[in-house]
Amino acid sequence: MLLVLAPVFVVALVVVALVVRPGQSALKSGEAEVEVDGTAVVTTADGRSRPVTDRIRMHAGDTLKMQSGTASITTRDAVFQAMAGSGKPGPTRLLMGTTPELLGGELLATSEHRTQIDSAGSSVTVGKADQGGAVRLTRTLALRVSVYQGSATLESAGSSLQIPALRAAEVAALGQLPANPSPLRFRSTDRWDRAYLSPAITVDQQLDPLTLAFNQSSTGQITAASLHLSDLPSTHVVNTLLDRAREVDDTLSRPADAIVGAAVTSLAQKGTFEHRWNAVFRFHSQGATWGLVAMDQHVSADSLLDRVRGAIDQSPLRIGGPTVAAAQPTAPVIGGPGAGAPSGTTIPADGSGATGSGSGTPGTTVTSPSLPALQVPQPTTPLLPSPLPQLPPVTVPPQVTSPLQGLVDTTTQLLSGLLNGVAGKGGLLGG
To answer: What pTM did the predictor assign?
Structure first.
């Protein structure tokens, strides 16, 4: 009997081992399994510290401080990412407990279900009961919560704020929450931003030179007739919507921005055209880059870029300059919160980072757009005749001796002789 049950028991253990993540099933509330890629210092509740370069089990009351590299921290409910950082906000410092507390630096929290993190007297709940999310916490003198995916709830001293995806909010002081979340600020050189916002970074780096070249080489104001986009409602409706959008988004004075916003609206699928239009231009007017707006509307980068290029090429407002479809991509300075790569930066396709001083669109070289050469009109009438006329040579007349000059010379000679003769005889009084 034992021989029959033994194989079944072994198979059951193997199945459990394959289904359950190593270490996670045995974790208790307040514990975490930490894997360090670099160096961290773990200080226990009783004050003992030890450097960690591989794996360690943390318990309630233990504190982790990153010194170099990154670390993955797995609890029963979530997975956190920590990093050493440089400058502000500094290295991640995390206090383990039933609810982990961020003491300083940055922390990326990902979860398939609702989970909570405390920091600076405030609490952040990632996701909802049936939905997780990916949220970035940054603690300096203030606490900033940035939502990559899902949603988050920020609570501070009795005040509460819901933060949807691609938005952020900051607690400047305990209980002082903003009225509304703001668009995410991001940088193309940041590893977490690249991991979650790659489509937005791609769109911004490709669109910037297109819109710059078009705005510099076009004249007039965008109307429904000059949009050249498919899936648009009537001309009257579009012109009315354009007028309303200009009241909330002053960037629509630039023709290219109106084209991009209309293109995002036409490609989006959720809600009516007017609802999508209002959401697109409202988010952009709050400071979101067009890449972030496209992500918010679930519009793919390739579809948007193709539609914008086609609309710009056919626009009657373009009066010359370079062919905008051939413009080279450049990175945004800061993603509109955000930032980009400098000209000449090459971005590896694997997203591992950039050669040079920045990063951005995978597999592309970021260069600045070239502007058309300045054409100086030539005068129709020459300023001087060509060839120049030759002036006649100047003739100096020969020197002429006047009669008076001859008389003076003769008198001078006579007087000179007379005086010399007198001197030879001893002078007028000599004997």
So the answer is: 0.70
